[in-house]
Model the fold of this input.
Amino acid sequence: MHRRHFLHAAAATPLLAVGTRLWAASAADMPRFLLVFLRGAYDANNLLVPQASSFYYEARPTLAIARSGSGDNAALALPGVADWALAPSVGEALLPLWQRQQLAFVPFAGSDDTTRSHFETQDTFELGQGSGGRRNLGSGFLNRLAGVLGAGARGGAGHEALAFTDQVPLVFRGAQAVANHALRNLGKAGVDARQAATIERMYSGTPLQTAVSDGFETRTEVMNEMAGEMPPAGRNAIGSRGFETEARRIGRLMRERIALGFVDVGGWDTHARQGGATGPLADKLGELSRGLAALAAEMGPAWQRTVVVVASEFGRTFRENGTRGTDHGHGSTYWLLGGGLRGGRVAGEQQALRAGTLFQGRDTPVLNEYRALLAGLWARQYGLGRDQLATVFEGVAPVDLGLV
Amino acid sequence: MLIRRRRLLAATGLLATGCATPPQSGPRPAGPLKPDEARWLNRLTWGVNDSAAAELKAKGLERWVHEQLQPAPWPPRLPEAVQSKVLQLTISQVPVAELARRLEAQRKAVDDKPEGEARAAARQALQQETARLGREAATRQIWRSLYSPRQLQDQMGWFWLNHFNVHGQKANLRALMADYDDRLHELALGRFRDLLGAVVFHPAMLRYLDNDQNAVRRINENLGRELLELHTLGVDGGYSQQDVQELARVLTGLGVNLGDESPRKGGTKAGPPVRRGLAEFNPARHDDGPKTLLGQTVQGEGLSEIEGVLDRLARHPSTARHVCRKIAQFLMADKPPALVVDRMANTFVQRDGRIAEVLRTLFAQPEFAASLGQRFKDPLHFVLSAVRQAWSDTPIVNPEPVLNWLQRLGQAPFGHTTPDGYPLDSMAWTGPGQLTTRFDVAKQIGNGAPALFRADDSAAGAQTPAPQLKSALFMEALLPQVLPASRQVLTQAANAREWNTFWLSSPEFMQR
Done:
């Protein structure tokens, strides 16, 4: 039913109509999309707490976060939702977004890769070519999306695609020229403009020609945009550590010129002593959430036509392990954020979480395949047609969750 | 031996290049290094420099390669100026067990203090000491890579550190990294089974992948999974989730003990507790039931059960293929030809996983010789080769700038967080951001990077040797391979510093 509704909408709605409904922007300026990839498989069940599941509390005697309303350190109630609650460590940053309907969660999300290998599944995810078949390692799905949208290193302000990472990630590798520039630490330029032009000449006609000139160009633009950056400490009270500073810079660049972005955050592989309502995982989730809230604020009016998706390669075991941590599992929970989102809800297919409904007796099952979910999202956000979606995710039927 | 050497010559086509003088004929007259010799040198070392070039000229290519393949005593002998600095490091003077115990005692002392300023100060001192030891390990690694005469062994030592990656920043692993580095470099050209054993029984790996917490009925799969997926069979090597769980059971009880006391001897089926360095097998934590691994039953025998399983994993045909493919990727090409990998894997199986023999097979393939000069450098090769060529045999005093460049370029020692290690494929290092950063580093080195020769602030203002990139070695052996576009740019450099910057930024310099 979802799908039929979507196909109808997609067929009947050309790009500009979607744009004018949701985004009060000039047709020349593209909607923004940012993928935040949590490498290491974050423990989704201690973020979006399945508080309706008594089995959750049996399976996690030391890690479970108490039902909302049950005292200190309990999960936070999500207005409008009874079965799920939010980890208290992210409440301050995320609840305001939820209340403005700018945040939604999709549990039971993930890929069909069941190797439970971080590296294999990250590759599967980033390539977006399904698992099992022959893979083209030179074609990530965000690169294909950039191709369809005409975004890239040479897109010009408002049409650029950029990875905010030290290296170009697999998800952005491919035919479309996409640059990378990490924002954690802003180094100062070494070679001057004349030297840069000279170096470019040496690469003329070599396979690295495009990468070299895109690199110089991107850096010049980033430096220009960041020239007016205010000291982050002066702008917020909670103090900006780690990801928050980076996220603010990403927000600034996306507001001004980057239409399609990617950033990854590592350190989620919590096999031991991950903590519950408080502890190492709670701290990390808190830092991530504060960063995303800061990004939203930094984007200003552009936030209205922005969608941020937070995903991870797979979920973790539903039960805690012998060392107060969790092992490699399957289904995860994706986050969607955006100023124009129809959020404030937990979306997608769901089922009760009991011992008998776990995937292979141990993990959260995947009921919302991520490519179908993203294709459905982009059909609405960009008004992409069937052929365009098939270029990004071949053979995948989009599922529209009605989130934008 | 001689016969095998002849075969190597014939296969590589080296006979035709005039380097076939047998080793017993004594030193050869030193002449210009041929471009072809420079390519071998560039691939088997961290980069050409004067002393390596002279050694190759004196010995001839074939004998030089043969000697590089001989496992050498460890640690390597470094030039005197560097050797004395290495010997001054705490990690050179205090055995790892003692280091680990000291830090553990320091940590307990912090915990015992009441909350307050004194405790905060003690905690800060502990963190600084931990960081200092990690920095020492990284510093020593850089010095050895730059100046060890056993360059191939050093490269392979790095390969194994990366293959069996441990993230040095995790918890208190930094005090253990120097020893881990030593062990893997020492065994780098030896048997794979010995490497595997050293890794599985090393406290750094046991802690990094949580096996020190893996116990009967409290299973932690982390090490079991990565052993199969990354260290031995490979992800397509033919194992299942069931095998991961069973291997985790096999590994129960293998942990770390920094203290002086052993656990009380229990009369379990799994035998007595055994200490091996800082690793400890505790039978009381071992699952002594039978397991089924890769279709075979494993009896619950404790330590000998673990050793037996490591034997099987090390000799598994999937392991031979997986490991040989990665070696060929590291030393030859992104996509090494299947035939080359098959031949290496055959040697791996027939010669009981002896890595020197596997490398001998690789070097004998005509495809290997044809690949020389066409491997894109990763950041580590880029930085080390630049420093080696720039200052050849004038050792740098302070590796700190080198570590900072590697940090910026994304390949710092012990800096990869996940157990898969840094990527070996060149596509991982050819992004726009990587290249611009390389050009910046090229300029810093080209300008002389005086901090490399400044041990501390007191030495500021001391004479710093200028980089000698446009050397006789360059003119003889490297220039012939430089294409017209780069040659023209080099002639337009405004001064020597800029010439250095352009050469280190050139597409030709990016290849090894």
In short: The beta strands of chain B are 254-256, 274-276, 279-281, 291-293, 296-298. The longest strand of chain B covers residues 254-256. Residues 145 and 373 of chain B are 20 Å apart (CA to CA). Confidence is low (pLDDT under 50) at residues 1-28 of chain B.
